[in-house]
From TrEMBL, chain A:
Major place of residence: nucleus
Location in or out of the cell: Nucleus
Domain Symplekin/Pta1 N-terminal intervals: 90-307
GO annotations of cellular component type: mRNA cleavage and polyadenylation specificity factor complex
Protein name, entry field: Symplekin/Pta1 N-terminal domain-containing protein
Keyword Nucleus carried by entry: yes
TrEMBL record, chain B:
GO terms, molecular function: RNA polymerase II CTD heptapeptide repeat phosphatase activity
Subcellular location: Nucleus
Region feature (Disordered): 1-29
Lineage, uppermost ranks: Eukaryota, Fungi, Dikarya, Ascomycota, Pezizomycotina
Reaction(s) this enzyme catalyzes, per UniProt: O-phospho-L-threonyl-[protein] + H2O = L-threonyl-[protein] + phosphate; O-phospho-L-seryl-[protein] + H2O = L-seryl-[protein] + phosphate
Function, as annotated: Component of the cleavage and polyadenylation factor (CPF) complex, which plays a key role in polyadenylation-dependent pre-mRNA 3'-end formation and cooperates with cleavage factors including the CFIA complex and NAB4/CFIB. SSU72 is required for 3'-end formation of snoRNAs.
Gene3D superfamilies: 3.40.50.2300
This enzyme's EC code(s): 3.1.3.16
Protein's organism: Penicillium olsonii
Protein name (Swiss-Prot/TrEMBL): RNA polymerase II subunit A C-terminal domain phosphatase SSU72
One of the protein's GO biological processes: mRNA 3'-end processing
Main localization of the protein described in the UniProt heading: nucleus
Similarity field: Belongs to the SSU72 phosphatase family.
Keyword terms, alphabetized: Hydrolase, mRNA processing, Nucleus, Protein phosphatase
Subunit architecture: Component of the cleavage and polyadenylation factor (CPF) complex.
Amino acid sequence: MAQAPDVGDQIAQLNAARSLVLGDAAFYPQIVNGILPIVGASTRLELRRWGANFLAETFASPVLGVEQKEQLAPNVLQTIREILRLPETDITVLQSLVQASASLYPLVFRHIVNHPQDSTTWENMCEIKQEILKKMDDYPCSVKLCCAKFLQRVVQVQTHSSGGDPRRPELNETSLAVVPRNHSLLSIPNLEAESSGLLDRLLGVFQEETSDALLVNATINLLPPLIRTRPTIAHKIVNAILDFIPAHHVRPPFTPTVRVSVKSMERTARALLWNILKKNQNHPLAPRMQAYIERLSQSRLEAAEDPTRKRGLPNEPTDGLDGAKRARLNAMPPPMMKIPPMAPGPATYDSLFTLTEDAGLSSFDVKQLPFDIVLKIVVPLLSQVHDSTMAQAVEAVRTRYQTITREQTLQRQQQQQSAGQDDDDDYEPEYQPMDAASIASEENTAVAEDLADLQPSLGPFVLPKPPPLSEEEAGELGRAAAARVFGMLTAAEASAGPARGQAQQKLGFARLAGSASDRDAWSILLIRLATRAPAGLEPPPNADSTVRRQPTIADSIRETLYRYVLEDFRGRLNIAIMWLNEEWYNDRIQMKSAAARRNPSDEESEPTVVIHYDTWVNRLLDGFLAYLDGRDIKVLVRFLSEIPEITIPITQRVASLAKDPERVNLCVQSLMYLIMYRIPAREMCLNTIEDVYQTYEESRPAAAKVLKKWRPDSTVLEKTEEPEASAAPAQPEAQPAVAAEQ
Amino acid sequence: MAYDPRRTNSGTSTPQPPPPPPASGMAPALDPADSYKLKFCTVCASNNNRSMEAHLQLSGTAFPVISFGTGSLVRLPGPSITQPNVYHFNSTSYNQMYEELHGKDERLYRSNGILNMLDRNRQLKWGPERFQDWVPGIPRVDHLAKGDKGAAGTEGGVVDVIITCEERCWDAVVDDLMNKGSTLNYPVHVFNVDIKDNHEEALTGGKAILDLANRLNGAAVDEHRIHGTEGWENGTGAARQSFDENVPGILADWQEKYPNLPALWTVAWL
């Protein structure tokens, strides 16, 4: 029988045998045992395919009784095991064999429960199981599907079922519940552990980063029996589904195939949840399931732009007026407006916009109506007017307008041509740009071309130059600009915060003036505006004083700066110092350039420059000295040490502090600092100290100490030596204290 | 529901074999014995119009095909929208329906195309079957014996592909397969091709389904041929992909050609 030469004949015979069993299931045992040798491991592919397919069909068949299947199983298992061991490589054969194994597993399991002595059969089954589990991941997708189904069967069999009656195991479906505790081959804990692992493997498909829709769909569709009959694992399974969002498990590019996949996974997951919910409205996870379904439907809405999802409008061109096959829109066909020709005669705006032929209406003067009544009528009318009517009316007016423009252009062209060439000399393109283009073309061009020319011939629009500013206006504007920068200064100060100081520290000498937009940058800008920008523009100071100039912009900035610093001189001292340094520097540069400009032959005319530094340092000192109190030693010392030049007026002003008995020490200590650390000003300050010593009684103890140290041969000291002798020894501690403070 | 006047066999009361469908050129000329064929199942609500049109198209191309309805009853249009003609599934033949309606009001049912439709159906198979009552795996040898068109190849009572014609039918089929418990361990691709329930749409939809079927079968035949001798391990690239893997791509391609027939797909179990 196995030696039949022609495979075709053999297949035909086998098909006949299949027809027989399909017609009468009673023949199955005979046929199955008969074909096993023909379709076994060593036979041709066609026969193996047929055989595997037949075995799968046989053990799935609902018409063949469970007992008969159980009896057939041992022989078949042997064959399957042999074919799998080949190793088999044909997809169809593998698919069928795994299917058959999935059908066989519960049968064999039940058989072993009842026949613990039949270890060979169980061994074969376990071998097949291991083979499938081992190779599953390497199989092609089609086989993997069936392997997932096999897993499901194993899990189903090796889990406890619900509601079974342990006293009547023959009525229960095959599950762990039918296994006796003392079974020699089947160890319940081992089987349970194995099924738990296999369930994880089965559900692992939902955790893949990139889902294979085929496997996911197949897995979802095989879960319902587990969820329904295995309450112990149902919760875990449903949770795995609820955590699975198909759209998150695909990678771009979103090809049509990927879209099909996502949609199919979403719909299949939804179908599963509906299936569960329909059976048990009060499922503990019902709210989550509903939320999940909701979420899926939303995610599908997001994908709604997918043109394939919805039945689109028909592709044929839809003529809105073709009543025969018109898409149902919520609109009537747009009413066509009857546009009367324009009234004859010269074109007026009135005739241009009149679109009615009603004589009464067109002669009605709307201006007679009060404005508010017109508004009341027009606004509701505008909201109700049909879009297309509006568009038609506008189009009609536009056409009319274009016709008129065209006619006018033609007329003008003709006039110019008749006027002749000599007109060209007077021609002013600025004033009649439209004509320029027409003349330039000098052709009696077609009307349409003319129209096209109209646009470019309009030319660029140039704003007229503003009238020249008067000096007052310019100054006014300059001050306004400066005021605006001051505005920035205060704004920057308000928003600066602590970051400013840090940035400054970091930059140090590398800082570029005005490189940031903080307070310092703006103040530098202002200071330089005041000191450098107008340098040399100012009228010479010896100019005729009768034409005494208005305050220059620089002076007004200085004035503002002065007031700005005095508003908070402690906080803005650094701005004052910056400013004075710039002033001093500017004065130097001015003097230098003035010297260079000096005409060597003209000895008498000494070049003079306005020295801003002295003026402003004195004004500033006058400004804030009055407000210094005894503890402001740091402020004063810093100011005096950082300004670029100490002058006698400055020291005098400092000396005046000693008038106030509370500020004597302030005065003496700041002068002493200058004596100690500002060598060029030492003599000047010592002189001042002497003055102070002589003028103010209260200053003598402190001043004497300074003088003794720095000018021991001072004449003033000797004159007053005696009365102060007793006070002298108390002083030495004061000096290091001051020094330390710096 | 005017019956499509373009149908050559429409308007004739004399039974005549269904004409070869327009797509008959696509029918492979191979000997059916050695050419692989996927087994199809078409489903609509009443197993009368859309599923039967597709049944006609598929069986005309020699595909094994069975067909079902998912409704609770067979409903056919009556004299008014509130008076449909209602029949039971599985127990009423197309011929019975034909005779009854013919007797009731021949002019009405002739003009609305119902008689022509039933006439076509009674030449294809005995009567409408309900999907939910179908037990997969029960042999259908008797259907072959009765001469049902497309019965050859479906004797085993299983199919590889189910194609529904309406989304709620797809839902019903997937849900029912879940309930049936997948006892056969047999994977089945379930498609939906959304077709409006009228004769014209059923005809275009039926052709589109045939196109889909041809594409799917082509891939399955390729799988059998490519992997037949060398085994899957020797194939490369797309050739290594099995038929099942190619299904989403096939559907996506098909959908691009038929954007007006929105499609759905999943893999379920019999």
